[in-house]
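Just scan my protein:

. . .
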Amino acid sequence: MNKFDNENGQEKINEKKQIIKNIINLKKEKNAIILAHNYQPREIQEIADFIGDSLELCIIAEKTDADIIVFCGVDFMAETAKILNPAKKVLLPEIMDTECPMAHQLPPEIIIEAKKENPDAKVVIYVNTLASAKALADATCTSANADKVVNLFDEKTILFGPDNNLAYFVEKRSDKTIIPIPKGGHCYVHKMYTLEDVKKVKAEYPNSELLIHPESSPEVQDVADHIMSTGGMVKHVLNSPVDTFIIGTECDMISRLNIELEKVGKSKKLVPLRADAICNPMKHITLEKIETCLINEKYEVNLDEEIIKKAKVAIDKMLSLNK
């Protein structure tokens, strides 16, 4: 590395430090908070006020007294924050390419048609859906509480979407008949995982525990040591006596786990089940975009009032489990 490269590298470090300083000042000036999902890059997680999974961030969004919520995640997450805080300004630092592909697999018309075919069924949909879909649900859920939400209802038949693998996970843990909607609904990241992946990494780390997200395929769930949400993974890794974990979810979950381990002075071996398990829409938010977002107060999330009202009923049903 020559002198020019050293100087250029230091300049970039100084620029990054200045951007972070500006973000901190803007947050204070505007009474704003930054929420970041576990799949955000580490540098975004490090400047967030709160990091979490979908359920944890829903709870925080509902309780915040901030005037502005900057959501570092994908589109449905920012919409959920707006539903829970209709009077607050909710900002998504980037609107291009931050759509969750799975959320868009369940448009309202599919739910409407399924309800016609199953009029006695309750509708439970993953929080990973758009607000227009949530407005048609009896309850929302996350991967952390899906089985508990389904069991809130007396009805034996549940329309559940959009993730078919999470539907499999739920049906195994309830006495309900789960009808997945749409057929084939999935997360493209978790669908990557195969039994061959498990065999390969387990052979390299035979004394490890395999932690699998319930959006993964049934055959991969069935060989996991633990199936859990990302929030569940944080608690388990921090408290388990095991030293090595294979992480079967989006790669930046390892960033979150390392941050939490560093806070308590622990060090553990964290191995991705696949190094290419990357949610591309999560990576389009940058420090520069957060700074610009706070300066210009855009891109603001706006939703129809009637959709907010109906969707909030479904979300509140889920959140009642935590009250």
Q: What stands out?
A: The domain at 103-187 is CATH 3.40.50.10800 (Rossmann fold). The chain has three domains: 3-99+283-296, 103-187, 190-278. The first strand starts at residue 32 and ends at 37.
